[in-house]
Amino acid sequence: MRVAAPVVASLLTLIVGSIFFASLGHDPLPTLYAFFIEPLNSLNGLSEWLLKASPLILIACGLAVGFRANVWNIGAEGQFTMGAIAASGVGLFWPNPDSVLLLPLMFIAGMGAGMAWAAIPAFLRARMNTNEILVTLMMTYIATLFLSYLVHGPWRDPAGFNYPQTALLPTAALFASFDPAYRLNPSIFITVVAVLLMWLFTDRSFLGYKMSVSGAAPLAARYAGFRESAAVWIGLLAGGAAAGIAGMAEAAGPLGQLSPQISPGYGFAAIIVAFIGRLNAFGIVLGGLLMSLLFLGGEGVQMTLGLPSALTRIFQGILLFFLLAADFFIFYRIRLIRPARDTHALETA
Amino acid sequence: MHPRLELRNICKRYPGVVANDDVSLAIQPGEIHAVLGENGAGKSTLMKIIYGAAQADSGEIFCDGNPVAAHNPATSRALGIEMVYQHFALFESVSVVENIALSASSAFHLPSLAEKIRELSLRYGMPIDPHRQVHDLSVGERQRVEIVRCLLRTPKLLILDEPTSVLTPQAVVKLFETLRQLAAEGCSIVYISHKLDEVQELCDTATVLRNGKVTGTARPKETTSLELARMMVGSKLPEMHVSPPVPSEKPVLEVTNLSVKARDHFGVDLKDVSFDVRGGEIVGLAGVSGNGQAELIALLSGERTHGRSDAIRISGTPAAGLRADERRKLGLAFVPEERLGRGAVPSHTLWENTVLTAHRSGTVRNGLVDRRKASAFAAGIIDRFKVKANGPASTAQSLSGGNLQKFIVGREIALQPKLLLVSQPTWGVDVGASAFIRQTIVDLSRAGAAVLVVSEELDELFEICDRLLVICQGRVSPPLVRKTTDREEVGLLMTGRTMSKDQMASGSGDVALQD
User: Fold this and answer.
1) Containing domain of residue A146, as a range?
2) Is B241 exposed, middle or buried (0-12, 13-18, 19+ CB in 10 A)?
3) Which residues of chain A from 211 to 230 reach within 8 Å of chain B, CB to CB?
4) pLDDT score for A340
5) How far is residue B179's CA from residue B171's CA, in Å, rounded to a whole number?
6) CB distance A235 to A73 below 8 Å
7) Between the N and C ends of chain A, which has fewer C-beta atoms within 10 Å?
């Protein structure tokens, strides 16, 4: 049943999507084809597909570690942004711009910044029992505004015609593409490693076991003496690290510089990916590929058919909605009770 | 006159097992009818069929002489059949009256429903405050909520599944009065139990099941318990061997002047609790549920810590500030009262649930869970404790309460603890398995372990304990030696009636020195 829900949700999303296209005056079948098939018809399409799936999968893997323990990190977008900022900072200002150490240093900086950004809500939750959902979400806005401040102010490229963006990163600070014609680069191997690590952690390690007990039965975790605060710290730091690395890979990959808009919403979409993937490493890979296709398809029909760009977000929303609904109807049954004023209906029942 | 309920030739098969094989029985109006049998004898399946939660493969059901076609719990309730399950179905986060309102089949009005609950519960001698939150209620109190929920519908047939396992002797007497009162008013009662003395005291007729078949029908008041037990078990019952204790010189568990404020309004403050448990002996803690047992147990197990570390010592080490796993390193093992969600993770498999506490016994290596070791560990428990399960890969929630209890007790004993803490060791466990669990606990203590048993069943405590403590309103009595005390003395202490002021005063510092 756990596997059925994402499949049912995906099918329902397609059906509602078709109705949606029809209402916009487009024949549903060709539009669906343009949305879901056409983007993958070329090598470039495949390259873009994997390129966009990579950060989604990477972030979702980190988030799922926390989600399994009921630690709700909703702020991956902010941790992604901080990771991109820190990595770009190293890339832009490192004394030796040709150093081979530049990329590894940026990796560490990105990961560290993501973790540091997630450590704040972790500390607040573990020490003061604040709600991490709210704190992580609010910190996303701080990160976004911080990025905006940097690219409009101190980090603005003096030679950039006053555009709010930094200078281009030096070549040594960039992942070289596999092929100059396409944008896909070796950073996808980081994601592959992350998926394997995530699988090892959740399915095989004792630490991952403890986290799953904390999530599934908090009283049993207390009975066994597993620290609740450990689950909070690990859950948030894992998400922060993954999002920070994804931010670094994005800056050192397709972006090459910072601007106010560096993410099409990867941090939020990854939450949906984690749930479509049932918080399972390999499920997340499939979920990430699907979500990436929604991004690509949305861009595609925007260009070819002139459909609104909000379509991608709408599809994401519909998909999440149906996933939650499918889960709900699998685990619960709805019973209607007539309202009453002041009767002893129980007596007659 | 037609029987209130009649079953004819009921058969029910599940893949691999015949749960009910040609079962027939008749229950008259106003009759209290016992259904006796061990775990897995088919009692629960039969009750589900009566209640409509499962359908028989063949056979007929008649209610007041009318055949009942395919039915479900809703139609059963319309026929006046109500059931009190052994596992309560209550929402913890809302109040008593809201819980009852949620299960209402139609309209309700909260204030008048609350008033009705209060009246009805008082009338049947089991008062509950309808506005209390369920998570604050003890297990015994939760059961009252379930019973009152059924009584609100003035049932014609009430099914009770192991109702007394969580009650004190006094409360059992009260419950029996309630049930007799109900029967006298014409309500038929189906009483599922494995406690022969209770069945003999209460029930007019008994149908005994074994392996899904009726092995006999008896008038319990005219039948000896041995005969009934043989019908149930089918062979001779194991006898308990309790050799005299050889207590260690130094106590393994020492509690000194432990006082704790309750964490919420409805909890119980612990007041200056002191006692000790030595290696080689079993100490029992008797008391009506909701008198501070939950608080004391949480403090002893490490689920709750205490600021003054030497208030609790394990083998001499101050332990009150240590977490549960740190205390386990000192040799503590613990069987909690709640099996699902506390003693075991419901959605996890049995082998995963062994890792919960046995992670120091080879099931974890280099930070990785060793599935083969954990499975072997689980299989060993299943084998030794005759747990009815489809092997180590079945989930904890798929096991019946008694079988899961066997598994958890087995897991904790397999850890070879120096100090075993057990809460309600045989609640809902059948006769044969109870005897086995008790014997295992006795054997563990005689091999040198210190054992503290918290139970609301006096018979059990008197059977295995060497010394008894009684807890009442957060105070623990001085220890009583089992051989020189009796049920009346303990029963009275449980209600706090004979606790004179001097005794309460001496219940503090001197207790540890006594003995």
Assistant:
1) 57-278
2) exposed
3) 212-213, 216-217, 219-220, 222-227
4) 53
5) 12
6) yes
7) N
Domain assignment of residue A51, yes or no = no
Asked if A205 has any chain B CB less than 8 Å from its own CB, the reply is: yes
Residue-level pLDDT at B505: 43
Asked if residue A292 belongs to a domain, the reply is no
Q: CB–CB of A61/A281 below 8 Å?
A: yes
Q: Taking residues B214-228, report their average pLDDT.
A: 85
Does B324 contact A at CB distance below 8 Å? yes
Q: Residue for token digits 């296709």? A: A293
Nearest Cβ partner for B104 among A225, A342, A346: A346
Q: Hey, what amino acid is at A338? A: R
**A195 located within any domain:** yes
What is the structure's pLDDT at B103?
77
Tens-place pLDDT, residues B415-439: 999 999 999 888 777 777 888 899 9
Q: Taking residues B191-198, report their average pLDDT.
A: 83
Contact status of B135 with chain A (Cβ, < 8 Å): no
Q: Provide the number of structural domains found in chain A.
A: 1
Q: Tell me if A110 is assigned to some domain.
A: yes
Ranges under pLDDT 70 in chain A: 1-2, 337-349
- State the average pLDDT over residues B115-143: 85
Q: Which two tokens stand for residue B113?
A: 């429903």
E strands in B279-405: 282-286, 312-314, 317-318, 332-335, 364-365, 368-369
DSSP state of A200: I
Around Cβ A177, how many Cβ atoms within 10 Å?
16
* Residue B136 predicted with pLDDT over 70: yes
Residue B362, chain A, CB below 8 Å: the answer is no
* Predicted complex ipTM: 0.81
Chain B residue nearest residue A335, CA to CA:
B105
CB contact under 8 A, B104 and A225: no
Tell me the backbone φ, ψ of residue A260, rounded to 5 degrees.
-60, -30
| pLDDT value at B507 more than 60 | no
Residues A64 and A279 sit within 8 Å (Cβ to Cβ): yes
Query: Within an 8 Å CB–CB cutoff, is residue B370 touching chain A?
Result: no
- Cβ of B78: how many Cβ atoms within 10 Å? 13
Structural Rg of chain B based on CA atoms: 23
CA distances from B226 to B195, B217, B219, B222, B234 (A): 12, 14, 14, 12, 11
